[in-house]
Please model this.
Amino acid sequence: MKEIISITDPEEIQNYIEEKEGVKLILRTNRQESRGKGHPPHYDTGTANHMLWCAYSASTLLSDDFEGGDFIFLDDEDNIIERVSKDEHYQKTLIYDSTHKHMVEPHHNGNRIVQLLFWEIRQE
Model:
């Protein structure tokens, strides 16, 4: 799964993923973040495997008063597969499963504020 949706409410995003993917989820992390230096290439299971439970992630871009800060999906050799600009991402939610390697470019001249959500699959 990897797509941009117009839903921004965390509960509605979770319902969307559960219905589309046929899973039940537990929201483990819900936080806002602004990091000017961006994020290096990684999977959301963590560079030190500290989030192996993470199955799905979501990033809602809450601001657009900055330059740079593109969200980029990569292959295993860090080649760019897809670039998501702030114009595509602003006031929308990028959802993806943990198999997608990605990074965020540094930003400047403002604050890139995102709401980050991470889910675990509920085992029943």
In short: The two ends are 22 Å apart (CA to CA). The first helix runs from residue 10 to 21. DSSP finds two helices and eleven strands in the chain.
